[in-house]
Specification:
The protein is 58% helix and 0% strand. It has 161 residues and is an all-alpha fold.
Length: 161
């Protein structure tokens, strides 16, 4: 795989986080482009923007009351849910936790790139992309790859054999 492409896969978490954060911050209802993009993303941009405006950013995070569908087919009148893992982590757990997660994600990605672990690089990139739309990045039952930081991978594993 090309070096630039493996670098792209290794840094997918940071790229996706920056992308959704920037798009959410720039989102405006007056723009037909943003309205179309928000529709494609199932209102992730508008709810992320609302979360940022109402609750703001903090160093250590804060409690944010959310009301989802709860399995219902009808949307509640007071629906508000931060589906994007990146936005949810940033607002609920704070800037320090958000930066720590991105640093750890980068370490895992760089390690996988160095060891030419293409499967892990692809998995990390898929999870990074999926985390734009889903809030499960830190949910171990949905994302067991959180443990990869502590795993012996690639060369380390081969050297022990």
């Amino acid at each position: 795989m090309a070096s630039w492409f493996s670098g792209l896969l290794a840094s997918a978490g940071t790229i996706c986080a920056a992308g959704i954060l920037i798009l959410s911050m720039l989102y405006t209802k007056g723009s037909s482009i943003f309205l179309k993009l928000d529709s494609i993303l199932s209102q992730r941009l508008s709810f992320s923007k609302k979360g940022m405006e109402v609750y703001g950013f903090s160093i250590f995070g804060q409690y944010i009351p959310m009301q989802g569908n709860g399995g219902s087919t009808e949307t509640p009148l007071n629906y508000f849910f931060l589906d994007s893992s990146y936005i949810s982590i940033l607002l609920q757990y704070g800037l320090i936790m958000f930066v720590m997660i991105l640093i750890l994600w980068g370490i895992i990605g760089l390690r996988a790139r160095k060891e030419k672990d293409w499967v892990l690089l692809w998995i990390l990139a898929i999870i990074a992309f999926q985390s734009i739309m889903e809030q499960h990045l830190l949910d171990i039952s949905y994302n067991p790859f959180l443990w990869i930081l502590f795993a012996e991978t690639g060369k380390k594993r081969k050297q022990k054999k």
